[in-house]
Amino acid sequence: MSEETTKNMVLKGVGASMGIDIGKAYLLEQEHTTHLIEERQLPPEEIEAEVNRFKDAVSKARQHLRQYIEDVSDDYQDHVYILDTYMMLLKDKMLYDGTIEQIQKHRINAEHALKNTVEKVKGNFKKMPDPYFRDRASDIVHASNLIFEQLLGTKPTKISDIDKRVIIVARDLSPAETTQIQLERVKGFITDLGSHTSHTGIIARSLGIPAVLGLKDATRRLETGDLIIVDGNAGLVIINPDEETIAQYYDRKERFETFQAQVTRASEGPAVTTDGHRLEIQANISMLEEVVSALDHGGEGIGLYRTEFLYLNRPDLPSEQDLFENYRDLAEIMRGRQITIRTLDLGGDKFASSIQWSEEINPALGLRAIRFCLQSPDIFKTQLRAILRASAFGNIRIMFPMVSRVEEVIEAKRILEETAETLDKEGVLFKKDVPVGVMIEVPSAVFMADILAEKVDFLSIGTNDLIQYSFAIDRINKQVASLYQPLHPVVLKMIDLVVKAAKAHGIEAALCGEMGADPINLPVLLGLELDTISMHPISIPGIKHVVRQLSFEDTRRFAREMLTQHTASQVRQLVLDTYGDFLEMAAFFQSNGQAQLPAYRPAV
Ligand code: PEP
Ligand code: MG
Fold this sequence. Notes:
This protein has 604 residues and is an alpha/beta fold. It has 3 domains: 9-29 and 159-262, Phosphohistidine domain (Glucose Oxidase, domain 1), CATH 3.50.30.10; 34-152, Orthogonal Bundle (Enzyme I, Chain A, domain 2), CATH 1.10.274.10; 271-589, Alpha-Beta Barrel (TIM Barrel). Helix content is 46%, strand content 14%. It has helices at residues 47-71, 80-90, 93-106, 110-126, 131-152, 175-178, 199-207, 218-221, 243-267, 290-296, 320-334, 369-375, 377-390, 406-425, 443-447, 449-455, 463-471, 489-504, 522-527, 540-547, 552-562, 568-591, and strands at residues 9-12, 14-17, 20-27, 166-170, 186-191, 211-213, 227-231, 236-239, 271-272, 278-285, 302-306, 338-342, 395-400, 436-440, 458-461, 508-511, 532-535. The strands form 2 sheets. Strands 1-8-7-3-4-5-6-2 form an 8-stranded mixed sheet. Helix 1 runs antiparallel to helix 3, helix 2 (80-90) packs across helix 5 (131-152) and helix 4 (110-126) runs antiparallel to helix 5. The longest helix has 25 residues, at 47-71. The chain is globular. The two termini are 48 Å apart. 48% of the residues are buried. The structure holds phosphoenolpyruvate (PEP) and magnesium ion (MG). Magnesium ion binds at residues 401, 441, 462, 464-465. The site of phosphoenolpyruvate has 11 residues, from strand 11 and helix 17.
């Protein structure tokens, strides 16, 4: 790259890990041969051997990965579970069984069958409306690359050989490759592919090294030895900076590092107010793969596992064994931390193609969630059996969604008991006292929260739906989005009623709607005395940071005052007047690539 012509050239990407550094680029040599794979037709007598060649490659890839896990240095011990999820991905039904089926059905070579399968699975992920799910496509690619290495005999990239303080420039980095980075040698990294929620970004974030991903053609524009600035806050890379820019960036780097030290402290450990009150902060997830992010961002448990995903995008229903393995894996990764598995919330705007749905004029008011499950006891029982079996492996509890009448809870618990008895007779191992809770998402449930509280072990308020059903605002209709106001005094009054009912019965009051993820709502939610708030994982550090600035006693008084207001904008203004200073810090944190819109359910 010529010095004269390209001073201060800026490349824009995604800031996947905050931080700023200045250093020499190191272009990583990576073998990319999968695009050269050609289809070979096989005679019938060779099919079995080809399937075995594929199985052998997967088992070698797993051995290889196991070796990575064993060799992981102390810096990465906290991330071993990311590699554990890759172990699972290598045996993932879609990838593993899908490739074998391709070999057998189309009588083709394993490499091509794997390539086709990866494309198909990637395509399914890419169609997801939620960006987090779309990004899981890169996990499939990284896992399949480990198998390609075995099938094609290509060599893995050697990051551990780097012996200078550099900024790595690569086309893409898998989590396995990322865990080879030696922190004392690498100042940061930038890649052509990848995004904010890729696991590579997640690892970089917790290691505290800046990373900019998705730069498209950085590897083409840069050579080893070029001086670059990586600005993970703004998602920028500056090539060949002049003296003035370098000086400015050294100053920014220093200011940012002082601020970051404070926020990082807030994401680890419990969220305790200035006067010693603890608020439990948990994560909401919809896929097993997200558990990595949940833990990485300081989630103390899973407050809501949306289980629908396993039923969507497939022609048949998942088997009890499929579900059991998924829940057990989750339990094992969480190692004793609490996991709240919500039973199926199908219907509304989520329809599994394996189930015959009748046309509904108002699906949000129709056969959805617990109503659907009670009318389809076989599907319900299969899921309950899987959850109960998984309960032997961790700290699992069950939650029923969209309860609108107490009879539903009684009936759901009866089916659960019946299921437990059957398992018992079969001699299957499970925990006998799995806690059961209900979601409060419908106004009728709010007004009989005291009755529901007698029947269950916890209540969890789903404000996404509660607001929809209380104000008659379709949560996915953009035209009425401005009417969707979590800080409306009516919402606050409903939360207050539910918390009081839970407290009167000595049970936990949680909130798992996405309003918990926005720092502006936090002073009131804390003051309303919720025990637990759960949210999209990446919002956790910012929220914990704010909790630590607040006094519980002050927010209790403040929340009482908010209950007497008339409009959401009054409440909002009072929050800003009273707590604006603390929230500004959180907003700064969230705007650095961390901001998150409410994670609405994928419309299928
Ligand atoms: C809710 O309704 O607030 C909730 C958490 O559930 P979901 O978003 O999955 O409907
Ligand atoms: Mg809901």
